[in-house]
Amino acid sequence: MKYPINQIFQTLQGEGFYTGVPAIFIRFQGCPIGCSWCDTKYTWDKIANQEMLLQEIMNKKKENDHWALTNEKKILNVITNFGWKAQHIVITGGEPCLHDLRPLTIILQTAGFTCQIETSGAYPILCTAETWVTVSPKIKIHKTLNTIHQALIRADEIKYPVARKRDITTLITYLDTLCDQKKRVISLQPINHMTHAIKLCIATCISRNWRLSLQIHKYLNIS
User: Fold this and answer.
1) For residue 144, what pLDDT band results from cuts at 50, 70 and 90?
2) Which residues make up each annotated binding site?
3) What is the mean pLDDT of residues 176-192?
4) So where does [4Fe-4S] cluster get bound (predicted)?
């Protein structure tokens, strides 16, 4: 498979179930959703004249919309050659599920890594059964793209951005469509760390035994 890659770097996972875990991030280029609060807007457009070599992407000094088209073997080689210590890999974007992630997750897990996908759930999720899937449903944000049922069913974690009370109501409505017995982690993430959103998320998490997801990388000022 050929994947459009914006960044590969090592840091801490800053949000959701794996908060605080050392992780290698593989950030994909390209996302059609267009969330207003997105903090990686430079990954939205895959502009032809911004394509570079993978090695040039690895030498980036700042975040930008440059990207490289590469395959799963070269991605693994880059990760191995850097000698990073993290064993957890986060496949994120952009929107990684625009692509078939089975070849990538297979080769990474065969090499001993654990994998996590972060996705909007607007596209079918194609990965190994062992991959941890975090779906952040994007409901009524795009005119034609919404989170699909397959993505909600596959999700191990549903991490929902919250700004106001109606966001909670919308999430509950979506969760009610899940009729299986799978135990999913439900995480609420206050948008932009707004005070009223944090208070709302805390109260809801306590009342429903859900989790609070704060983007600690923003507090720590790390990538």
Assistant:
1) low
2) 12-14, 27, 31, 35, 37-40, 92, 94, 136-138
3) 92
4) 31, 35, 38
DSSP tag of 41: G
Q: Would you list which residues are annotated within the binding site for substrate?
A: 12-14, 27, 92
Where is the binding site for Mg(2+), in residues? Answer: 40
Query: Residue 220 falls within a domain, yes or no?
Result: no
Instruction: Give the percent of the chain with pLDDT over 70.
Output: 98
User: Based on the structure, what is the number of domains in the chain?
Assistant: 1
**Phi/psi class of residue 192: alpha, beta or left (left: φ > 0; alpha: ψ in -120 to 50)?**
left
Binding-site residues for S-adenosyl-L-methionine sit at: 37-39, 94, 136-138
**Position 171 in a domain:** no
Residue the block writes with tokens 């005070």: 195
In a domain, 175, yes or no: no
199 in any annotated domain:
no
> How confident is the model over 76-100, as pLDDT tens digits?
999 999 999 999 999 999 999 999 9
State both tokens at 196.
């009223």
d(CA 90, CA 101): 12
Element (H, E) at 159: strand 157-162
Residue 110 structural domain: 2-160+180-187
pLDDT of 143 over the 80 cut: no
Closest CA to 123 of 108, 109, 105, 142: 142
Q: Give the global pTM.
A: 0.94
**Helix H segments across 130-189?**
149-154, 165-175
**CATH number for the domain that contains residue 101:** 3.20.20.70
For residue 118, give the 3-state DSSP assignment: strand
